[in-house]
Amino acid sequence: MMRVSLTDAGKRFNRDWIFRHISQEFHAGGFYALTGPNGSGKSTLLQVIAGAILPSEGKVEYTNHFKQLTVEEQYLDITICAPYLELIEEMTAAEFLTFHERFKPWTAGQNHEEMLGKVGLGDAGEKQIRYFSSGMKQRLKLLQAIFSDSSVLLLDEPCSNLDQSGVNMYRQLMTDHTQGRLVIISSNDKMEYDFCDHIIWMPDHKKVKQAE
């Protein structure tokens, strides 16, 4: 079973601590929310968990079936959806899915047409992503993250740019396609995480004073 462990983790930029002294274990099958007001460090912590940025202090460890994972193994087991991650806009949606599949397979039984249909993009497979609306791009990002065959699913503001039908689609995907996975959601909107069974209030770990 997948486990992500943070031990006294902290992150600072220059002399300002974004968060500090976080010791937390995240276990497969759990739904965790990182929440708090803007600037409280939610997205930064999610990027630290993803391995996109390193902590300034403390450590992050990834264990699967009691085996500590190497950096290369970690990335194979993690997918992330975030507003700041870009799509390859010169590709069509179908080309993007084919390209992504070279690096990480889809969950068993999924094909491109069915996945696009489940996120409301069934008629957009041959359309270049550059012509997608912001909501369509977000649907494609959610597809890429949720349907990838990974143990850890990280979602940063997952309903950004989605209308109500998109929000309903997101919640249905979370019900149907996240069983047994470790899910961590960064958000200050309860609608995106009200089904989570663990809540981490980021202001509890906010240090605004200068670094020692």
SSE arrangement:
Layout: E1 2-13, E2 16-27, E3 31-35, H1 42-50, E4 57-64, E5 67-68, H2 71-76, E6 78-81, H3 93-101, H4 112-118, H5 134-146, E7 152-156, H6 164-176, E8 182-186, H7 190-193, E9 198-201
Parallel strand pairs: 3-8, 3-9, 6-7, 7-8
Antiparallel strand pairs: 1-2, 1-4, 4-5
Helix pairs in contact: 5-6
Attribute tags:
Rossmann fold; single chain; 9 strands; 212 residues; 7 helices
The CATH topology is given as Rossmann fold
Total strands: the figure is: 9
Sequence stretches where pLDDT stays below 50 over 5 or more residues: 208-212
| Strand line-up in the sheet with most strands | 6-7-8-3-9
Query: What structural class results from the helix and strand content?
Result: alpha/beta
Q: What's the shape?
A: globular
SS summary, helix count:
7
Q: What percentage of the residues does DSSP assign to strands (E)?
A: 25-35%
